[in-house]
Design a protein that fits this description.
The protein has one domain. Helices cover 17% and strands 42% of the residues. It has 1 helix and 6 strands. The strands form 2 sheets. Strands 2-1-5-6 form a 4-stranded mixed beta sheet, covered by helices on one side. The longest helix is centred in the C-terminal third of the chain and has 13 residues. The radius of gyration is 12 Å and the shape is globular.
């Protein structure tokens, strides 16, 4: 299981977006939504492109426990 996270641009702290089971495939759907941030109180945009980046990072690092998405990139973390 890995947690996909977005970085709060105000504080730099991670915001949990969703949990992905190991080896799971998430279908790509063109969408975007505002995610409420528990750190700064603002909403941050989360897009299907961000989800695609996260899924690619998890595919490349299936042992990851977190994936941090920020500034057009995703980093799998152990």
């Amino acid at each position: 299981m890995a947690i996909v996270q977005l970085t709060c641009p105000e504080t730099g702290k991670p915001v949990d977006i969703l949990e992905v089971p190991a080896g799971a495939f998430q279908a790509a759907v063109l969408s975007s939504t505002e995610i409420p941030c528990p750190h700064c109180g603002k909403n941050h945009l989360w897009t299907s492109g961000d989800l695609g980046l996260a899924m690619r990072a998890l595919h490349d690092s299936p042992e990851a426990s977190r994936v941090l998405v920020e500034a057009g990139s995703a980093t799998a973390l152990l």
